[in-house]
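We emphasize that the prediction below concerns an isolated chain of 220 residues; any contacts that depend on oligomerization or on bound cofactors are therefore not represented. The input was used exactly as deposited, without trimming of termini.
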Amino acid sequence: MPIATNKARMAKILRRLEKAIPQAKVALAHQNPFELLVATILSAQCTDARVNQVTPKLFSLYKTPSDFVKMSSVALEAIIRSTGFYKNKAKSIMGAAQKIVERFCGEVPSTMEALLTLPGVGRKTANVVLGHAFGVPGVVVDTHVRRVANRLGLTQSQNPDHIEGDLGLLMPKSKWIDGGSRLLLHGRHVCRARTPLCRGCTLFNLCPNEEEKQKAENRP
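Result of the prediction step, given as a token string:
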């Protein structure tokens, strides 16, 4: 499909999602860029709701990167255990905190290049922090965005970096943060992996995935 056609269809998709999802804020509770960074690392293969149950206690005890550098890995693991993969997450969080203290004067960096030098931080996490803590445009691509983008025919790739590039070409830069967030929320709540709620979906007639829509029609 020509890129101009896809751009026009993307514009329609975004307009409908803006009506269906007026608020496109990140669901992870945070008060500053560092808290958002930690919460995003914890959210890997874990629900935002579960992370939000864990972080109030965590951030009441440890507030700054310096605090995390001083704490023991055992103490951190005990608090974040319920988020899953807690040993790896604790290692990433403590490593990121140490690098922030040593290299960035205790402040979370506000560029993609610098964020990617932190342990446990990939482009998805970096884009979350950049967009929602610093207002720097970026398209967050997680499993929900990957699924929605493919079902809508906005990309033919499964590679998150390639999908980020494809969506970035189709959306104006001013829409990258909120547009990506709305695609994510649409995937989480409507265009679900196993049982997408095609009936009543605001994007139904813009979606070329006839096979998935037919399956939905045949469900009792």
